[in-house]
Amino acid sequence: MSGKIQVTVWNEFRHEKKNDAVKAIYPNGMHEVIRGALAAHKDLAVRTATLDEPEHGLTEDVLNQTDVLTWWGHVAHGEVKDEVVARVQKRVLEGMGLIVLHSGHFSKIFKRMMGTNCSLKWREAGEKERLWNIEPGHPITEGLGEYFELPNTEMYGERFDIPTPDKLIFVSWFEGGEVFRSGCCWERGHGRIFYFRPGHETYPIFHDANVQKVLANAVRWAKPRVRIADQCPNTKPLEKLAPVKEKFGKVGVLQNG
Questions:
Q1: What angle do CA 170, 175, 178 make, to 5 degrees?
Q2: If DSSP states are collapsed to H, E and C, what string results for 90-151?
Q3: Is residue 131 in some structural domain?
Q4: DSSP E strands, the chain
Q5: Rounded to 5 degrees, what angle do the CA atoms 35, 36, 38 make?
Q6: Would you give per-residue pLDDT tens digits along the chain (257 residues)?
Q7: What is the CATH number of the domain that holds 209?
Q8: Count of structural domains, the chain
């Protein structure tokens, strides 16, 4: 793929409108902070889309121009229209990258792509999270150290009901003692999917430099390598086939086989 990677940052954009504490951290929405962090990279071109836009901002035209879609949702998963979910799923299977953030684990699109409940344990107590980089050679962990820490987070704990990741790159430890698979990679169809755990709305997590680095790296990892529409064609043989009557006898039994 040539040119800049085309990124669409999707956000539910509800907490920032209704919760003053969240609005103080993200006055223009989490999507604008993520957009700004990604747009600082010259190889990325970034747009945003939100739930209350027509077709949730994810029209056919927008998705056709999107290489990688990031997704944050929480309180309004049920309001996402099934036809839009199907549209996103189709694009992922064709080759578009999908990055699912934090509470997006319960989104319709993530559940559909995983085929599981995607449930987990949780606790909101403002505790420290230490994310261990267990794949230091992976493109998503480029430029990171052995671990990084977030001083205040919402805890997510195992068991996380997901298919075993194709590659697990981050494991989190929380101050309360739980651990969690916080950075998970899959391939579905021709597309790549990355789930990244941090991102609770009442903490300035998307302002964190390490989190922003992970997101930029993940976009580059998830960018399309091909775009192939799903088909189930009847196809002609590459080689010349013998006539059927020469292969089978009168009763349909393969001859000389």
A1: 60
A2: HHHHHCCEEEEEHHHHHCHHHHHHHCCCCCCEEEEEEEEEEEEECCCCCHHHCCCCCEEEEE
A3: no
A4: 5-11, 44-50, 68-72, 97-101, 121-133, 147-157, 167-174, 179-188, 191-196
A5: 65
A6: 459 999 999 999 999 999 999 999 999 999 999 999 999 999 999 999 999 999 999 999 999 999 999 999 999 999 999 999 999 999 999 999 999 999 999 999 999 999 999 999 999 999 999 999 999 999 999 999 999 999 999 999 999 999 999 999 999 999 999 999 999 999 999 999 999 999 999 999 999 999 999 999 999 999 999 999 988 899 999 999 988 765 555 555 555 55
A7: 3.40.50.880
A8: 1
What are the tokens at 157?
A: 């704990």
The domain in which residue 47 lies consists of: 5-115+183-247
Q: Which two tokens stand for residue 91?
A: 């694009």
- Tell me the CA distances in angstroms from 174 to 55, 120, 128, 152, one per residue in order: 38, 14, 6, 10
The verdict on residue 37 lying in a domain is: yes
Place of tokens 């994310």: 131
